[in-house]
Amino acid sequence: MKEKIRTITEKECPLEIAVNTISGKWKIPIIWHMNAGKKRPCEFLREIENVDRRVLNQQLKEMETDGLIAKKSYNQLPPKVEYTLTELGQKLVEVLWQLNEWGKLLQ
Keyword Oxidoreductase on this protein (predicted)? Predict the structure, then answer.
């Protein structure tokens, strides 16, 4: 059985689990930008307006813990880190595209 993700408690339904997993001001923009391919933290800072480095790092860590993204660290100087979507993260992108289409109906 898959290990429980960070946000799950025994009494939550699947929808609550999903919403808790993507809750956070920057998580959806992070996933959206990662859909184009692997990203380094400095790229997120350039591409997502007003994101704070500390908050970005916290949200990336949570998303990694939840299995949405994978982190690859390179043993070099200066240190290099890249993030990619996992299979679970790629499935979330599909859902976000559908949610985007639904949002258009509200405009």
Answer: no
Q: Identify whether the C-beta of residue 78 lies closer than 8 Å to the C-beta of residue 66.
A: no
Residues spanned by the domain of 89: 14-105
Residues facing residue 74 across a β-bridge: 80
Cα angle 78, 81, 86 (rounded to 5 degrees) comes to: 170
Backbone φ/ψ region at 70: left (φ over 0), alpha (ψ -120 to 50), beta: beta
Which two structure tokens, joined as six digits, stand for 6? 């960070």
What is this structure's pTM?
0.82
Per-residue pLDDT of 16-28, as tens digits, reads 888 889 988 899 9
Q: Are 6 and 61 in contact (CB under 8 A)?
A: no
For residue 3, tell me if it sits in a domain.
Answer: no
